[in-house]
Structures are given as structure tokens and as C-alpha cells.
Amino acid sequence: MRKKAAARLDPVVQRERDLVLATLATLVPMLGAMVGDHVEVVLHDLTRPEQSVLQIANGHVTGRTLGSPVLAGPKNDKALAILAEGKALASPAEHTTVYPYSTFARDGRQLVSATAMFRDSLGDTFAALCLNADFEAIEAAQKLLARMLPMREALAPAAARDELPDMEALMRDIVSSAVRRNGKPVAKMDKDEKMAAVQAMQERGLFMVRGGIERAAAALGVTRFTIYNYLDELKTRSN
């Protein structure tokens, strides 16, 4: 998995991508207005992961805004893991959907998510349309109704949600969590343990953003080429 110099995209494919993104962007506010403010609708341009959020409705569900990075999404994102691992096998222009699956907001709320990933005619995944639903308030209302009590007390205000961390904090959290999972100092980790850490970083999308390889290498005390070798070996094992 060697990093190659970015090749100039064929103008026809670029126009194809632009058309798909523009079409999906018009749907986001409409869907957001129809499904209710407990469902976030977000369109990602995956060619720019550091600022992937191209359009968003009901962003208060996860705290994201236009230009937020792909790493700022819900935790345990199954679709992101599939994309990062390269396991979303499909033919060119064949799109992939993953739904429903559980994720978690950064403040710990459980969400229900769905994702559609879009490929161009070359087979490259370049866009994702995601729905993230927070049923916490609805479930709480159901419990109150089930109790059939004339409760008039004002509900206590919800705890303030954590401020969305910036890219630096997101990357630092991904790296440190992956390294700590082995429960031992990096100096005492063997190759398999370091590869497991790299796989955890990959599943959370670290290597989709600029500087991810270098951060992983520094944290594990290896060269960036070693990280590429680990990723090559992980890909071979998964095939």
C-alpha cells in the first residue's frame, strides 16, 4: 500500500462526481426537514476527508457543521470501517448501502445510522450520504407515557454536550486509544501487537486523512514504510 502521487482525474469522471454530489446536496435539506430534527442527514465528499461534510441538516445530533472532518462522525461507524479497510467490494459505479447499525455520539448517546456510499465509473468511492438518528428523547417520552402519571415538573435540562474536538484532538485520540488497547508500553509490543494497533487506527479512518501514516509511525516507534508494510499485510490477510 504505497502512497502514490495524486494523478489528475479524468475530466469526464470529475464531471460525473460533481453531478452526483450536486444532486445529493439538494436532497439533504429536504430529507432533514421531513424526517424530523432527531435525524441528522449529512453528505460527505470523501475526496477531502479533512473537510468532508459538504452538506448537513440537523447537525446538532452529532455537533457537526459544514466543513467538519470525516473523523468527527459517530464512533463505531461500520460504514467508515468498511471503507477504510477496503472491504466494500463492488464493481465500478455500483453503490453500497449499510443499514441499520448502531453508533455512538461523542457524548455517549446511542444512535442508529445508515450510510450509502457512491462510486464513480472507475470504481472509486468518493461520496457518502449518511443518516444518524437519536431516539433518546422519543424513548424517554414513551417511558413517561407508559407510566400514565400527571407529571408536570419541568424536566431537568440536558447535560451540555461535549464540544466537537478538532482534527488534532481526533487524530490524537485515535492513535492513543489504539496503542493503549494492548496494555503495555510500545517498547514491549511485538509485531502482531503493533499491527493490531494499526488495524484499529485504520478502522477508525486515521489513514484517510493527511498525516495519519506519520502519526501512527511516531506512536509505534517505526518508520512510515513499516506502517505501509503493516497495511499491506493486513489487506492480504483480509482477502
Notable traits:
40% helix, disordered N terminus, 7 helices, alpha+beta, 239 residues, single chain
Widest β-sheet, arrangement of strands: 2-1-5-4-3
Detail the poorly predicted runs. Answer: 1-5, 151-156
Number of helices: 7
Number of E-state strands: 5
Sheet bearing the most strands, described? Answer: 5 strands, antiparallel
Oligomer: single chain
β-strand percent reads 15-25%
- Helix content range: 40-55%
Q: How is this structure best described in words?
A:
The chain has 239 residues and is an alpha+beta fold. It contains seven helices and five strands. It has a five-stranded antiparallel sheet with strand order 2-1-5-4-3, with helices on both faces. A hairpin with a 5-residue loop joins strand 4 and strand 5. Helix 4 packs antiparallel against helix 5. The chain starts with 10 loop residues before the first helix and ends with a helix. The N terminus is likely disordered.
